[in-house]
């Protein structure tokens, strides 16, 4: 139905943004695109982590509930706040990193594990 179209639109848009925009930019740029070391140290693990986070979310009945959507939105807003605080040199960046490592990531792991077990029990 309409939800399938929305999910396909989101996935297709992300693929185009990553592959199409980067490809066209690399073709028309006068010099090669350089990748910041910070992107490899922070952004790449975040992208891989989010991709891994989606596996159990999608496994839970092949749907994303409101609580899972809220979780994804909260993670996105936190990531955005972190990127802004780093780029502006705010002191919040270091505290946010510590907060993410000590509170958010373990809590996220517990929530994802609980949701995965709950979904697995529903299916079996």
TrEMBL record:
Membrane topology: Multi-pass membrane protein
The UniProt record lists the keyword Transmembrane: yes
Keyword Magnesium: no
Domain Sodium/calcium exchanger membrane region: 1-80
GO biological processes: intracellular calcium ion homeostasis
Gene3D superfamilies: NCX, central ion-binding region
Signal peptide: none
GO molecular function: calcium channel activity; calcium, potassium:sodium antiporter activity
Superkingdom: Bacteria
Gene Ontology CC terms, in alphabetical order: plasma membrane
Transmembrane segments: 15-33, 39-59, 71-93, 99-120
Keyword annotations: Membrane, Transmembrane, Transmembrane helix
Localization per Swiss-Prot or TrEMBL: Membrane
UniProt protein name: K+-dependent Na+/Ca+ exchanger-like protein
Species for this entry: Pseudomonas syringae pv. philadelphi
Organism phylogeny: Bacteria, Pseudomonadati, Pseudomonadota, Gammaproteobacteria, Pseudomonadales
């Amino acid at each position: 139905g309409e939800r399938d179209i929305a999910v396909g639109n989101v996935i297709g848009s992300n693929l185009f943004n990553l592959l199409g925009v980067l490809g066209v930019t690399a073709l028309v740029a006068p010099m090669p695109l350089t990748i910041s070391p910070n992107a490899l140290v922070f952004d790449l693990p975040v992208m891989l982590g989010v991709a891994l986070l989606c596996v159990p979310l999608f496994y839970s009945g092949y749907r994303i509930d409101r609580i899972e959507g809220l979780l994804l939105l909260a993670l996105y807003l936190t990531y955005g706040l972190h990127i802004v605080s780093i780029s502006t040199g705010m002191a919040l960046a270091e505290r946010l990193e510590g907060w993410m490592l000590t509170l958010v990531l373990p809590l996220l792991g517990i929530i994802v594990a609980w949701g995965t077990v709950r979904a697995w029990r529903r299916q079996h």
